[in-house]
């Protein structure tokens, strides 16, 4: 059955195409730096926004037109939705998708029933994966929607909720493994707090770490070889999310001896909510060997919440791909469109326009980033800016040869530090703009 009868398989038609259902830049087999675009970008569609989003907001219910939905959260509907999802993704030509357990399958009357339902839907997902060749980039557990998680999951004040969360993650890990998932994501959900008047912060952080250690132990036990990813976010739903940003999350992981077991899934709108640029967050993760995957979206610079819009800004996508290319690729991660169409864009075709635009913006950004790297106009400047560290006193400091005494003697002899050179920010911005074509 065709759920998108008017949509053909989306093809690459080149930059001059005006066909709204064609790629202008994403040409999966085209080589960039000797690797195909498909392998550089590893695009994924997210199940939650794309197949479960209704467009609801705090001011009104969803108004998305989804002719295949029957308005229920039944198992039959979940099974039918699998067909919708795979037709959508096949026509788009994406190699991956991602889910939370509760996106793909509803809860039953108790945990045992819930797990059985998940197995039933997972069986169908597996069949569709085999039919289409579309793979699972990552799975995750929804530990935030059900009211049992009102005070958090592993950081709940209620030990039973910790136990329920453990059981749920255990099952989600098993299903992720069964479906060949290449990563598993931990986004904090309600792991955080609103007021210290009712919160034992130390105890909650200890519990969060204990939970992560248990997950690592179980991962090894069942032989799941995918990468564990933490997805930092500073606020929303709680005022103080425990995985605030990459630096804060790395400190947490190191403090509890978990840093070798995790990487980060960095999301643009989370970076900007933390008052960072995405470039900063990616670079921070990358230089620490922690950049594992990307949730590709963007926020609205005029709004202070997580709007999860599709990425269209070439300046942003070029910066993202610049970091990815500079670290030699995204590894087992990918570009997951954790993004939703606007409430006003309520027709099924809008889902295609959104993904095509996002994929083209990233493919275009990839080409721009490769051109920036080829000329080394930017990296060459940075290297030159730090040249004083390559020889002489700079090299002695970096190698540990020079201590305070040597540095004092050096400076007493020299009298003054050499005048600094201009940072040339405006020039470099002009250089970057030369590549944006
Ligand atoms: C929430 C968010 C999540 C994670 C997966 O802001 O980004 O959808 O990506 O739990
Ligand atoms: Co996300």
Task: Report the end-to-end length measured between terminal Cα atoms.
Answer: 41 Å
Radius of gyration: 24 Å
Count of alpha/pi helices: 16
Spell out the helices and strands N to C.
EEEEHEHHEHHEHEEHEEHEHHEHEHHHHH
- Quaternary organisation of the protein chains: single chain
Category from helices, strands and their pairing:
alpha/beta
> Helix coverage percent of residues?
40-55%
Question: Residue-averaged pLDDT, rounded?
Answer: 98
User: How do the strands line up in the largest sheet?
Assistant: 5-6-7-8-10-12-13-14
Envelope shape? globular
Largest sheet: 8 strands, parallel, barrel
Structural features, described:
By secondary structure, this protein is of the alpha/beta class. It is built from 16 helices and 14 strands. The chain has an 8-stranded parallel β-barrel, surrounded by 4 helices. Strands 1-2 form a two-stranded parallel sheet. Strands 3-4 form a two-stranded antiparallel sheet. A hairpin with a 2-residue loop joins strand 3 (31-32) and strand 4 (35-36). Helix 11 (314-326) crosses helix 12 (348-375). The two termini are 41 Å apart. It binds D-xylulose (XUL) and cobalt (II) ion (CO). D-xylulose (XUL) binds next to strand 8.
Which helices and strands appear, and what pairs or packs with what?
Blueprint lengths: L10 E2 L9 E2 L7 E2 L2 E2 H5 L1 E4 H6 L22 H18 L3 E5 H4 L6 H22 L2 E6 L18 H20 L4 E5 L4 E2 L7 H22 L4 E5 L8 E2 L4 H10 L6 E6 H6 L4 H10 L3 E5 L18 H13 L8 E3 L10 H28 L1 H9 L6 H8 L4 H11 L10 H11 L2
Parallel strand pairs: 1-2, 5-6, 5-14, 6-7, 7-8, 8-10, 10-12, 12-13, 13-14
Antiparallel strand pairs: 3-4, 9-11
Helix pairs in contact: 3-5, 5-6, 6-7, 10-11, 11-12
Bound molecules: D-xylulose (XUL) and cobalt (II) ion (CO).
